[in-house]
Design a protein that fits this description.
alpha/beta; 459 residues; eight-stranded mixed beta sheet; 15 helices; binds nicotinamide-adenine-dinucleotide; 42% helix; five-stranded parallel beta sheet
Length: 459
């Protein structure tokens, strides 16, 4: 039997052992899905803390219930290790290590390169190896392929190599690792076939593309699409602010069009490990080919200017109250980069807090998901959301619209609320003056636009 057929048989019978490198936001949910599908999974991570947590039946990832980890560990289906040599035991390896940006905004490939060396050291005939980390097109072929060849392994015959981007959306209650279609692109047709069989064993739908480059670029298109469209609505918020039009009303009206429009919402900027970073991997790659990706650069520029736009809104709103930012007590609501998650990586809230503090504000924050965080050696701790806290605030800035915040309480007790997410839309009027991301309080403009609105409606 050929190496490929033997491996396919092991996958089919679930006797294949699976290794996952990097047990973070992507790796742990994936490892759990493989284990639930019946494979024995070994999670390899350089973090002792992460390995101890998993082996202790606990979960450090909010979307993965500790009960699921505990049950799989107890059953003997899932284990974690810091011992890279154990990867020689596995038949399949998925690599899910970080791909951040360097200070220069160029890709920081150090984690992928380290993981590649680890895999290469333990690689043996009969393994399928899949890179999942988001990266520039060409990475799998330029990095992993030569590492395998240097070990004397023929890719497509002895080992099978593919790229398969992770699409996990933390906090999404509908789409998880299991029911989000998985794109796979192999170095050879056999590589694609084996990798598809592996993922097909635990994920509802696999979409096979013709090459790793197509799979790598698919992920970058998805995240660039989001970055560009978020930038477009962020710019629309600025446009609406200048025109005195309510951007939320405009978006709601545009979204009534049943075709050709997709709803995106503006906000204080973008965060997380993906949208602010991934498009720069493509921009970097294209710079090496003497091509400038203008959409990516412009979207990055607009999105990264949003925290300053928000802070200007706070300053103007305080000014209306005859107050300065300097010396004002500002309570920031939500520091996670998006609703109902605990991840603060690249969160625009960190920029908003820093910019307010630079202007002399006394900033506190409340986030039910983020009890504390450290930024440039300064430790911040979430304050309880109490009437006293709201009474002593000069302004409250809603940066992240977590669902378990009592927005009515904010509106009832705080004197001033700057709402960057339209979170107060369903509250009744209270004490607070509410300032939206785009203000619609320019009487002249509203008046001049009234006949148009009356005549044409919103269709
Ligand atoms: N977080 C997301 O929502 C998301 C979504 C889709 C894709 N991705 C991509 O997936 C990849 C992983 O992201 P993440 O959010 O899971 O990162 P993460 O920081 O949550 O987890 C990465 C893990 O890898 C470990 N690690 C680092 N170097 C290692 C090495 N050499 N060997 C073994 N373990 C190592 C770290 O200790 C950590 O536990 C990135 O490329 C990211 O862009 C992330």
């Amino acid at each position: 039997m050929s190496t490929k057929d033997l491996l396919l048989q092991k996958i089919e019978s679930r006797t294949a052992r699976v290794g996952v490198i990097g047990m973070g936001y992507v790796g742990l949910p994936l490892a759990v899905e493989f284990a639930k599908a019946g494979f024995h999974v070994i999670g390899y991570d350089i973090s002792d803390r992460v390995v101890k947590l998993i082996n202790g039946g606990r979960s450090h990832i909010a979307d993965v219930p500790a009960s699921a980890v505990a049950a799989l560990v107890k059953e003997g289906k899932l284990e974690a290790t810091t011992d890279a040599a154990r990867l020689s035991e596995v038949d399949a390896v998925s690599i899910a290590v970080p791909t951040p940006l360097a200070k220069t905004r160029d890709p920081d490939m150090s984690y992928v390169l380290a993981a590649t060396q680890t895999v290469a050291r333990t690689a043996r005939p009969g393994q399928v190896i899949c890179l999942e980390s988001t990266t520039y097109p060409g990475t799998t072929r330029e990095t992993l392929l030569p590492a395998m060849e240097a070990r004397g392994l023929v890719v497509g015959r002895d080992v099978f190599l593919a790229f398969s981007p992770e699409r996990v959306d933390p906090g999404n209650l509908v789409y998880s690792t299991k029911n989000t279609p998985k794109v796979v692109g192999g170095i050879t047709a056999d590589c694609g076939e084996v990798a598809s069989a592996l993922y097909g064993a635990c994920i509802d739908r696999v979409v096979l593309v013709s090459s790793p480059e197509a799979a790598e670029l698919t992920k970058l298109l998805e995240n660039t699409f989001r970055s560009v469209n978020i930038a477009l609505v962020n710019e629309m918020a600025i446009v609406c602010d200048k025109l005195g039009v309510d951007v939320w009303e405009v978006i709601d009206a545009a979204a009534t069009k049943p075709f050709g429009f997709m709803r995106f919402t503006p906000g204080p900027g973008i965060g997380g490990h993906c949208i602010p970073l991934d498009p720069h991997y493509l921009a970097w790659k294209m710079r090496t080919l003497n091509y400038k990706t203008r959409f990516i650069d412009l979207a990055g520029e607009i999105n990264s200017e949003m925290p300053a736009f928000v802070v200007d809104k706070v300053a103007d709103a305080l000014n209306d109250e005859r107050k300065s930012v300097n010396g004002s007590r500002v309570l920031v609501i939500g520091v996670a980069y998006k609703r109902d998650i605990d991840d603060i990586r690249e969160s625009p809230a960190l920029d908003v807090i820093r910019l307010l503090e630079d202007r002399g504000a006394d900033v506190a924050y409340h986030d039910p998901f983020v009890r504390s965080f450290q930024e440039e050696s300064i430790r911040h701790e979430s304050v309880p959301l109490t009437n006293d806290e709201l009474d002593r605030s000069d302004a409250v800035v809603i940066v992240t619209d977590h669902t378990n915040i009592d927005y009515q309480m904010l509106v009832d007790r705080a004197p001033l609320v700057i709402d960057t997410r339209n979170a107060t839309a369903r509250t009744s009027p209270g004490r607070a003056r509410i300032v939206s991301l785009s203000s619609s309080n320019s009487p002249a403009m509203v008046e001049s636009m009234a006949p148009v609105a009356a005549g044409k409606g919103v269709a």
